[in-house]
Amino acid sequence: MEPLVIALASNERYFPGLYCAVASAWRYLDRTREVNLKVLDGGISQTSRDTFSKLIDRVGGVVRLEFVTVNPSVFGKATLGPGESHMTYCRILLPHLLDVPRLIYLDCDVLVFRDLAQLFDLELAPGKVLAAARDSETLSLADDSPTIADAINLPREGAYFNCGVMLMNLDELRKQDFFERAVEFLNRKSAYRFWDQSAINFLLYGQIDELPEYWNRASWRFDAQQNNDLDCVLHYTTSAPWLGGTRGSAQVLFERLAVDAGLPVNRQAADFKKKRRQELFRNALAPFRALAFPLLSLFYKIAGQNEKCAAYQKAARYWLYYIFNAPRRRRLHRQRNQEISRMKFNLCASPLA
């Protein structure tokens, strides 16, 4: 069989995510199939590299691990991404840095509960150069930038994809000079909102095959589930769970797996304390928002500003539901969290081996 090629990108700050993403994925892989694991290294310490190499040795299988040093300064004129760095643009570098025909790219804020070989072995539809799942929050090109959509004559309502999990045909991307075009697009510092994801969606519009949602399920959707069914790639789109996270079952799941993977989350870190303060403040303000937003909606309706009126109506409904649903939500989360706390992740044993 063709070797399975998987690429991730990380620096030291995101190393716990990289570690847990790979630890979770390996449990579902066939140990007899060769895996080429490429880690785009934007500043991982030698200690963390050694820790990661030990993980690969522990989970076993035929694995070729390669750390590829990257210098994202080529995006120096682009808008800074999360963590005030340009590491988010590393996906753009894949066709430029890696001499392989195709690969799976994973963000390092995912947990994998499916066999990635099923994704790698998919045949892209004719005319498609990568496959990704629809974004759960940014639903259209206009939600990213109507200005850019209009400027390059794309439909504002065009489908928008989340790029945290992708099957990529690097040969075709190289033929299209995608790396060079993306660098030019991003360094213009135009009205894009989502860094390299914007470049991928606008420059490759019409060439993206749609994956089922289970290949890239937002963590907030997992929190909204009525049960702990997994069978997905879980993507922590709102907050990195080792950097404070977001209260909910998805956070509990990450921390539970991290313990079995051998790299527990430090809940005494400053990021977690800051997050707890933010959550207390958010909950304290919830009743005031539920009362104030209907009044603001009425004010804008009288003023004839219908868009703002509708926006505040929507926000008011959210906060009213948030308050009245809180007891049921807490009971359900308590039940689910107890189930998750009893889960065991034997990361050295593959059910497919």
Task: Walk me through what this model shows.
With 353 residues, the protein is α/β, with parallel strands linked by helices. The protein has a domain at 4-217: Alpha-Beta Complex (Spore Coat Polysaccharide Biosynthesis Protein SpsA, Chain A), CATH 3.90.550.10. It contains 14 helices and ten strands. It has helices spanning 15-26, 46-59, 90-97, 116-120, 141-144, 146-151, 170-175, 178-187, 195-203, 219-224, 249-261, 270-302, 306-324, 326-341; strands at residues 4-10, 35-41, 63-69, 102-106, 110-112, 130-134, 161-169, 208-211, 217-218, 233-235. The strands form two sheets. A seven-stranded mixed sheet has the order 3-2-1-4-7-6-8, with helices on both faces. It has a three-stranded mixed sheet with strand order 5-10-9. Helix 12 (270-302) packs across helix 13 (306-324). Mean pLDDT is 90; it is low at 349-353.
Brief summary of the model shown:
With 353 residues, this protein is α/β, with parallel strands linked by helices.
